[in-house]
Amino acid sequence: xILRWLLVIVLxxxxxxxxxxxxxxxxxxxxxxxxxxxxxxFVNHEIVIDFMLENGISFDSVSLNQFQLExxxxxxEYHPSIENVEVFTTQEGDISIDIIxxxxxxxxxxxxxxxxxxxxxxxxxxxxxxxxxxxxxSGNVSEQNHKEIFDFVNIINESEFWKxxxxxxxxxxxxxxxxxxxxxxxxxxxxLTQVNEKLDNLYQFYQQAMPIKGWQTYSxxxxxxxxxxxCTKK
Length: 234
Known about the structure:
Order of helices and strands: HEHHEEEEEEHHEEEHHEE
CATH superfamily of the largest domain: Cell division protein FtsQ/DivIB
CATH topology of the largest domain: Rossmann fold
CATH architecture of the largest domain: 3-Layer(aba) Sandwich
Helix content: 25-40%
Shape: elongated
Structural class: alpha/beta
Number of helices: 7
Strand order of the largest sheet: 6-5-4-7-8-9-10-11-12
Largest sheet: 9 strands, mixed
Number of strands: 12
CATH class of the largest domain: Alpha Beta
């Protein structure tokens, strides 16, 4: 009886070893690339494939025991438009890749630079494949301005009115100038402080004065002074 059980155990170990060895020799193949549905179109299936091929990543004749799942995830996260990657494999060797794109919230254009800030406030390079419609910041912008720009843009993007109305910020000396979509006037905002208060004042000005005076009456509108709006007629 004991001998019989020993024989069963030995056969089980042999079968398991054979199955495991066969599994490890199974060749892998790319099954699918899933890109999270988003407004952004920075990457698609073809762009991801080209990125891997350009960097020598191929699945031809690669077995499961050779496939480095975590290394592939880390490699794909080096792509400037990718936020997060998860790679999965099956026992049959099928590989699926789940990708979350980065989201650009503002584009910064200066004399020497051209880049985005993403949804986390980090610098993101522009893409040759896709250009999102985001607020533009120009002028004398430095890395020290990133935090205040990012905070300001988040406030703007929370409001459908301001998101539609404000198209550009321009940094010049100690002033930030807002460029509106409607009206030709420049809006002198001063520093990007007391943002909500200044925007509330400007909104009231739009609601009460502009319908009476007309959108083309003023060339400049200044919000730099506490609780008051100073306008310059054309």
